[in-house]
Design goal:
By secondary structure, this protein is of the alpha/beta class. Helices cover about 40% and strands about 25% of the residues. Helix 1 crosses helix 2 and helix 1 packs across helix 4. The longest helix has 28 residues.
Amino acid sequence: MELRQLRCFVAVSEELHFGKAAHRLGISQPPLTRTILQLEEELGVVLFERTKRRVEPTLAGLVLLEKAQRILALSESAAAEVQRAVQGHSGTLSVSFVGSVVLGILPEILREMRVRFPDVEVNLHEMATDQQVEALLERRTQVAFIRPGVVHPELVSHVLLEEELLVALPVSHRLAQADEVAIGQLRDDPFILFPRQTHGSLGNRVLDLCVREGFRPQVVQEALEMQTALGLVAVGFAVTVLPGGARNLEWPGVVFKPLPAPVPTIELALAYRKDDASPVLPRFVALVLEMAAA
């Protein structure tokens, strides 16, 4: 059986008239009649009881009608789904990110993505910047939110924003009541630093700021997650420097202090492979760039 035959059969079954069915299908009646006869011959059954004024499905016809309607509906659904996938309205997208992004732009992007493209499944993976670059090159992830931007011949990188850095201090710290805190004022304090990486990171940025002030920080702990760093700051273990989005956490026992002007910043960038042919990817990138610009 062919879909063409089933469409003809369903049209006759629903119209109960060959002429009306032919008009509905946009064909003349003789080829419609031949198609039904061919279908009956293939199945070895009579599908319609025919009179001069009307046709009625036989028992075999009624059984086939239910199946044929279901098959045609599935066929139309499959065709529509294929078109949506090709146009980037459905499918999957693997997104990696540095942990601090969940305090800023990423949740808003994911909410808007669900609204605009509800049939796209976004799979999230938290990774450090070096791990993200490696995952992109190995095609284990498709798009990455990294700090800072990366230059690589196989990747495209867009700087989305520059986030101001701030100092996180325990409430008992000697500078906890200050309006602002300069990096140089922390030269004698123990630091919690995020891992330094080949492609740059928050850890690299903070280390550079300290070196510019004439000292290397006394790193007593490296933290992979912001929550770990803030937990250690809260108990007075050390101080740390974080992107401004950390303020959203309102961590008990921690005070956040701005740095003096010109306030140092760190880039947040979006990176993906140049040769990624996923139809979902350009829609996601366009959405991210639109929201970052806004």
